[in-house]
Amino acid sequence: MSRTLPVSAVVFFIIMLLLGLYFAFAAVQGPSGLLRRVQLEAETADLVKEREVLTGEVAKMRNLTRRLSDDYLDLDLLDERARDVLGLVRADELVIR
């Protein structure tokens, strides 16, 4: 006597297998999947590095701004910036380009 599964059991098994494969694929490739998470972590690391660089630039600009403020005036820096912006030189200086 041959034992065979009813058609409904085979169809149910195939549907469950396909659903399992779909959810496994979605867990890896989907918008919230493992690969997207790895990509987001890499982007986060890049953005953290960029933030650190920008924080350094902001600190540098704050220092320059403070040195050119009315409360604390660095005359050497003021002279350097004025010469650079206006393109001026003293009579006793040589310009090398």
Q: What descriptors fit this protein?
A:
mainly alpha; 3 helices; 71% helix
SSE diagram, text form:
Blueprint (H helix, E strand, L loop, with lengths): L6 H23 L4 H34 L7 H12 L11
InterPro entries: FtsL/DivIC
Protein name: Septum formation initiator
Pfam families: DivIC
| Radius of gyration from CA coordinates | 34 Å
First-last Cα distance? 101 Å
- H/E order of the elements? HHH
Could you say how many structural domains there are in total? Answer: 1
Q: Segments where pLDDT lies below 50 for 5+ residues?
A: none
Q: Which range best describes the helical content: under 10%, 10-25%, 25-40%, 40-55%, 55-70% or over 70%?
A: over 70%
Number of helices: 3
**Biggest β-sheet description:** none
Extended strand count: 0
**% residues in beta strands:** under 5%
What is the average of the pLDDT values?
88
Q: What would you call the structural class? A: mainly alpha
Inertia-based shape: rod-shaped
Structure notes:
The relative contact order is 0.04. The protein starts with 6 loop residues before the first helix and ends in an 11-residue tail after the last helix. The chain has one domain (7-86). It is an all-alpha fold and 97 residues long. It has 3 helices and no strands.
Could you give a short description of this structure?
The protein is an all-alpha fold and 97 residues long.
